[in-house]
Specification:
mainly alpha; MetI-like fold; two-stranded antiparallel sheet; 12 helices; Carbohydrate ABC transporter permease
């Protein structure tokens, strides 16, 4: 017969719980406000009033935003950059990291030194802009993809993860006649799914939130990413970024504030929807890369 003892909460535990609850509330309330204002009916919206829940629900702001060419183009641009960029990031990062795990690869030490060097030193904005310009990538989606195919931190973490995989599996596969590409596709990739899921999230979030590079490399407003458009909508007081200051709905006008909040929700929602499905693999993938045994 087993006896379980419940731990009594001390004053320190209660203080920790209260502090955590307060910090969580402070973090959640801005999201609730943005969500509430975006769904608030324009007829009952009052500026500078805190909305925890919409007094009257309305989709006017969302209908208007999704009907404008600028916002639809921004979503398409961001979706293309995110999808293509993430796939290429995964391919380049895992293939290069796998190659760097092999000690017999010619020039491995030089390449690793170059990778580590970029962790400390960066060329800067002007040289990067000149490089993108000379490559003819200005005003092209590829200006947001090619220069960011991989990075030193991702390579080092993925390399550490791949080195933790059992070497016996690769040796067995080669004895069965697998080539290097076969070993990589049939052995390494299936065993690397937790890390792939984790870095898929890393790369996808990075591309989805692309702002600065899109701001300096793309001047064509039809190719703006979602973050650049949302910035224009929220910060630029002269224009709402989608072509109108108000939007008609049920005999009224949707204030600019409801359009701003709706644009923020649309920009954040995809990542919030995808993250719960990858959270399990995300945590596992990051931890596996830190243990080698």
């Amino acid at each position: 017969m087993s006896i379980t003892h419940k731990k009594r909460l001390t004053w320190g535990d209660w203080i920790n719980y209260i502090l955590l609850f307060g910090i969580s509330a402070i973090s959640v309330f801005p999201f609730l406000y943005i969500f509430s204002v975006s769904f608030t009916d324009p007829a009952v919206y009052v500026p500078l009033k805190f909305y925890l829940f919409p007094e009257k629900w309305s989709l006017a702001a969302y209908r208007y935003i999704l009907s404008t060419n600028s916002f639809v183009n921004a979503i398409k641009s961001t979706a293309f950059v995110t999808a293509v960029g993430t796939v290429l990031n995964l391919i380049v990062t895992f293939m290069m990291a796998y190659g760097l795990t092999k000690k017999d690869v010619a020039g491995r030490g030089v390449i690793l030194s170059g990778v580590v060097f970029t962790l400390v030193f960066n060329a800067g904005i002007v040289p990067n802009y000149i490089l993108v310009k000379n490559l003819g990538l200005l005003n092209s989606y590829w200006a947001l993809i090619w220069p960011a195919l991989t990075n030193a931190w991702s390579l080092i973490v993925v390399k550490s993860f791949l080195e933790s995989l059992p070497a016996e599996l690769e040796e067995s596969a080669r004895m069965d006649g697998c080539s290097d590409i076969g070993v990589f596709l049939r052995i390494v990739i299936p065993l690397s799914m937790p890390a792939i899921a984790a870095f898929t999230l890393f790369f996808a979030v990075s591309h989805w939130n692309t702002y600065f590079n899109a701001l300096i490399y793309i001047s064509d407003t039809r190719k703006w990413t979602l973050q650049v458009l949302v910035k224009t909508l929220i910060i630029d007081s002269q224009s709402n970024g989608v072509g109108s200051q108000t939007v008609a709905s049920d005999g009224g006008n949707a204030p600019l504030e409801t359009i701003r909040m709706a644009s923020i929700v649309l920009a954040v929602a995809p990542i919030l929807v995808i993250y719960p499905f990858l959270q399990k693999h995300f945590a596992k993938g990051v931890m596996l890369g830190s243990i080698k045994g």
